[in-house]
Design goal:
single chain; about 220 residues; alpha+beta; 9-stranded antiparallel beta sheet; 6 helices; 9 strands; about 30% helix
């Protein structure tokens, strides 16, 4: 099966869905100690915007300790309205410098995305299709792109930088010895499970190297 055809079918199927239900779990371990855990059970209706989440958070990092659980109901459409339509994990807008760096950055991003698409592998896993992507080299490429962007950014750009989700920063901070993305897709072109795994090393605030692992697991129910 063509990778492009499969991805098109999956995104089209997801776009046509009226409701999303599932749970996401994120865990970070440093030197065999669980320093962060988040569980979010969610349900949302795209048409009405009605959303309900049950979030459990555990933090045990340096002098910070937290155990928190909350259930929240809100309307996603109202949330987007107040956020100016940028969504929950998007903030700010890049303004390109007048030196032509904007076009170079855009072309670099397109080249990067095409490279990612080329590296995707498809495997049969029972009655499901497994989409597999080795993230180790990709993480290194992203780090290089970020450094190149930082080298050419102007003062205006610095004031409008994107704020990424915490798990993206966790991956970027790691020197990963292994990292992977897996997506399980059923016969109806529905993504049922997404898993990101990474193991490696990172430096703490004192620049001591510590072992680190990261896991993100998303389960979707249709």
């Amino acid at each position: 099966m063509s990778k492009i055809k499969l991805l098109y079918d999956v995104f089209k199927t997801m776009k046509d869905k009226e409701a999303f239900n599932g749970n996401i779990k994120i865990q970070a371990i440093e030197n065999e100690k669980k320093v962060f855990f988040l569980s979010n059970e969610f349900s949302t209706n795209k048409d009405t915007g009605a959303t309900k989440t049950k979030v459990t958070t555990e933090v045990d990092y340096e002098d910070n300790k937290l155990n928190h659980e909350s259930t929240t109901e809100f309307n996603m459409k109202d949330h987007f309205h107040h956020k100016g339509g940028h969504g929950m994990w998007m903030h700010g807008k890049h303004h390109e410098c007048a030196n032509g760096g904007g076009m170079k950055n855009k072309l670099s991003h397109v080249t990067f995305m095409l490279g990612v698409l080329n590296k995707i592998k498809l495997e049969e896993d029972g009655d499901k299709t497994l989409l597999f992507l080795d993230l180790k080299d990709i993480i290194c490429e992203i780090k290089e792109m970020r450094q190149q962007f930082n080298d050419v950014e102007c003062e205006e750009t610095k004031e409008h930088k994107h704020h990424h989700p915490a798990f993206v920063k966790e991956l970027m901070d790691m020197d990963a010895s292994e990292a992977s993305l897996k997506v399980w897709i059923n016969k109806s072109n529905e993504a049922e499970k997404v898993e990101i795994l990474a193991n490696g090393n990172k430096n703490d605030k004192l620049q001591n190297q510590i072992s680190a692992s990261f896991n993100l697991l998303l389960n979707l129910a249709w």
